[in-house]
Request: fold
Amino acid sequence: SITHGSPRKHLWTYAVGLSDDYDYPDYNCPCAKFPGPSPPSFVGNDYYCESGNNGTYEWHFHDEPLWDGEGCGAGNNCCAQSGMPWFCRALPQEVDDDIEVRNCA
Reply:
């Protein structure tokens, strides 16, 4: 998650789903062939989500880079988002806050 300010204001999120083409409704990206849950309201549409896994969760998927806009399975819209891997976000006002990047695994 990428935020700025205090209290934190959301800028962008890079998320990971469990599978591109297996039905894991609680763990897939919202854009997957079998969609998972929508992101929290504070995230809105300001995120990229990709799995990198075109199989079951037992499959090791270390060879598919995330958020590159490539390698998504058929029927999956996660790679169709423009600008990947970069994001562009217009804020309602000019800010000079520090940016925080948090990575959770």
Q: What stands out?
A: The first strand starts at residue 2 and ends at 4. The radius of gyration is 15 Å. The beta strands are 2-4, 9-16, 47-50, 99-101.
